[in-house]
Each structure stands twice: as C-alpha cells, then as structure tokens.
UniProtKB/TrEMBL annotation:
Keywords: Electron transport, Heme, Iron, Metal-binding, Transport. It holds the Pfam family Cytochrom_C. PROSITE patterns: CYTC. The keyword Ubl conjugation does not apply. One of its GO terms (molecular function) is metal ion binding. Residues 75-174 form the Cytochrome c domain. This is Cytochrome c. It comes from the Bacteria.
Length: 175
C-alpha cells in the first residue's frame, strides 16, 4: 500500500508546493511594492491625487421628492400595515403589550419614553419630547443616526413613502 518511497514523494510534493507559493509571494512584493511604508494605526494617510468630479464636497445634498407632510397626507394606512410587518418582530400594537420593544399602540402624539413596564435606554429623550409624525419619520429613517445609543437595532426604512404609510397606520391605532 504505502511504502517509504510513496510517502517521501507526497512530503516532497507538499514542500515543493509550499516553496513555490512562498517564492511567488516574494516575487509579487518585489514587483508591486512602491517602496513606501504602510502607515501604522493612528497615522494620517495622504491621498496621492484627487479626481475632480465636478461636485462640491461641502454642498448640501439636494432634497429628493415631495416634503414628508405631503406624502403623509396621501399615505395609505393599509399599505402601512403591510410595511409594519417588518416591525412586528419586536413591537406589538395592542395596548400595554410590550415585547422586545415597547407597544406602539397610540404612539403618535405620545410622549417619548413613557410606556409603563418598558425599560428605555434614555437616548430618545435627548432628541424628542413627543412622537410627532415628523419625529417618527426622522427616527424610522435611521434609528441609530437619529438617537445614538438607542436600544432599537433596526436599520430603518429608507423610503419616505414606507415611513409615511407606517405612521398613517399607527395613527389609526388610537391612544
């Protein structure tokens, strides 16, 4: 089955492959190394050149689409209920039914961090007093960006139409 010669050939092939791999890496470094040292952590890296794209880096981004108030006025609560499916993993809409997140029954117009029986992080109180449609819109777009430190780990709803539909749905739940 295996004799000494077969085992020697296998070990030799493995060592030869390793040697070729190491020599290839060494040759690649010689060919592509620019002679500059790689910056260490904390050192500033300077850009070698800049390509002018015609955009002003300090310019404000242009507003896209209609204002949120107009989108909310024409939002469909039934569509919001479908979009709310993304929220159901952590939130309930029944009064007093907290889950991973607090109940969203009557959330529109409610003061921030006031659901009984739910332990809040306190990050939201620094950014809003009441859950107005505008505050909900900003929060639902990027929860971590709106209130850094919030317990909510959801990435947000990038579509203004989806946010408006969810808020319209939440307004129908009363309070």
């Amino acid at each position: 089955m295996f004799d000494t010669m077969t085992l020697t050939k296998i070990v030799g092939a493995f060592c030869g492959s390793l040697l070729i791999f190491l020599l290839g890496g060494w040759a690649g470094e010689l060919i592509y190394n620019t002679g500059e040292e790689v910056p260490h952590e904390g050192e500033e890296v300077h850009q070698a050149y800049t390509i002018d794209t015609g955009e002003d880096e300090n310019a404000e981004p242009e507003e896209e689409g209609p204002p949120f108030e107009e989108v909310l006025a024409s939002a469909d609560p039934a569509a919001g209920e479908r979009v709310f499916g993304k929220c159901r993993a952590c939130h309930q809409v029944e009064e007093g039914a907290n889950a991973v997140g607090p109940t969203l029954y009557g959330v529109v117009g409610r003061e921030v961090d006031t659901v009984a029986g739910y332990s809040y992080s306190g990050a939201l109180e620094e950014h809003a007093d009441v859950w107005s449609p505008e505050n909900l819109n900003a929060f639902l777009e990027d929860p971590q960006g709106y209130a850094p430190g919030t317990k909510m780990s959801f990435n947000g709803l990038p579509s203004v139409e989806d946010r408006a539909a969810v808020i319209a749905y939440l307004q129908t739940l009363g309070g």
